[in-house]
Amino acid sequence: MNYIFVYGTLKRGYMNNFILAAQEYYGPAVTKPGFVLYELEGYPGMVEDPSALEGIVGEVWSVDDKCLRHLDKLEGLKEGLYRRAAVPLEAPFEEKKVQAYLYLRDVSGRARAPRDWKA
Description:
The chain is mostly beta strands.
């Protein structure tokens, strides 16, 4: 199984959560400081920022390999839109190897999104 931290449209109650319907929800989670969200085109993008003092609010899911491939396609890994990387989380997930999708494009001129993104 693969542990994924989601923070945008994949969260419960949002438009892409149906992709996770057959997967296991582990609960709410917060990253350690060092990440910020930016508003993109109706969804957020998380980027590393060592100056960020608060973590990003999201959810942890356990996904199978087939679902992970679907998520990689959705997030545009081949196109260089996002990369999947390990992210440190606060308790109770600090001991788990959890990955998230980090936005790779330029965020200059983009508005910062709240750390607990809501569509």
